[in-house]
Specification:
By secondary structure, this protein is an alpha+beta fold. The protein is built from 6 helices and 14 strands. It is globular, with a radius of gyration of 20 Å.
């Protein structure tokens, strides 16, 4: 093989009609090192002092230093994985849990998400910004220090495109917001509401795919972090903290989960799409994990081992008193 670019290479999957990122250099990233952490203060990657900190991923799947992206044309087509991958360090403490961060500290994380999203949105090579977090060894985390990531894509990822398409088609057919309709039904029924405040509402979706899946929706319409108001930042931070505390209190240990911030594409206007946060935990009981095995992985049809209504009640009861 010839020398590989800093980021990955996009390869077109003609049967699924979607890109696959080949990034073999990521095989060499550290795997839970026992006596060294690149995310701790003064480690070389992180400064000697910080509250929250962002730096470019050392093993990026997407990078500005790759060939230019282009739309697929042939059966076995390739393109440059042009974009960016960032690491977001939530806190200097190596062993602190995300659920242990204060509202004030989570607000700093949200502001850093917003700032970086806006910077990436200004890059003409970027079409979509994905903010996400993996937590727990069971998820596949390679570094235990509390952190998340931000990926900037040169295309719109398939799952994001499905949500964009469904919300646009609903809006065109009814003149109504699909997200607003969902929020109204959940707040009217109440059975799946986990927590809410003056600006955001958190609930287990009616058709939750993961055990104890929770979504956080804003009460007002906005498309992405670039439109969130400063007065809404602590309200989002507070609800993120509440849900994280409920998860970790549910079974008495840190919940392995994925967290993702769903945003509209950074190009164009998408008034039918609403920013939201999704938590995707994989702990289906105190001693059992949810694995995405053959049925889910090969068919795309999820099997949920828990009733959303029951799990919502359990999470409400698991919210610890202040």
């Amino acid at each position: 093989m010839s020398e590989q670019p800093e980021g990955g290479q996009l390869r077109w999957h003609p049967l699924l009609r979607e890109w696959v990122v080949v990034a073999a250099h990521r095989q060499h990233r550290p795997q839970m090192p026992a006596d060294w952490c690149p995310f701790c203060p003064g480690s070389g990657q992180a400064p000697a002092e910080y509250d929250v900190f962002l730096y470019p991923n050392d093993f990026p799947a997407f990078s500005p230093n790759t060939p230019e992206y282009r739309e697929p044309e042939g059966l076995f087509d390739t393109a440059g994985a042009r974009g960016a991958c960032d690491v977001v360090l939530y806190h200097p403490g190596h062993t602190i849990l995300p659920s242990e961060l204060s509202v004030e500290h989570w607000s700093k994380v949200v502001r850093l998400w917003r700032k970086r999203t806006m910077e990436l949105a200004a890059d003409p090579d970027v079409r979509y910004v994905l903010v996400f977090e993996n937590t727990g060894v069971a998820i596949g985390v390679t570094m235990p220090h509390p952190h998340g990531q931000i990926y900037a894509f040169p295309f719109i990822p398939p799952l994001a495109q499905r949500v964009i398409t469904s919300s646009r088609e609903y809006y065109e057919a009814t003149g109504k917001s699909l997200f607003e309709e969902v929020i109204e039904k959940e707040r009217t029924g109440r059975v799946r509401i986990v927590a809410e405040n003056s600006r955001f509402v958190a609930f287990v979706p009616f058709a939750a795919r993961f055990p104890g899946e929770v979504h956080i929706y804003p009460r007002r319409q906005f498309e992405g972090l670039w439109q969130i108001g400063e007065d809404e930042v602590p309200q989002l931070a507070a609800l993120i903290r509440t849900i994280r505390r409920a998860y970790d209190n549910l079974y008495g240990f840190p919940m392995p989960l994925m967290m993702v911030l769903r945003q509209a594409p950074v190009r164009g206007e998408h008034p039918y799409f609403r920013f939201h946060v999704e938590f995707l935990p994989i702990q289906r009981s105190a001693k059992k994990l949810k694995y995405l095995a053959a049925v889910e992985t090969t068919s795309g049809v999820f099997l949920n081992d828990t009733w959303p209504e029951e799990r919502a009640e359990e999470l409400r009861k698991a919210i610890p008193a202040e």
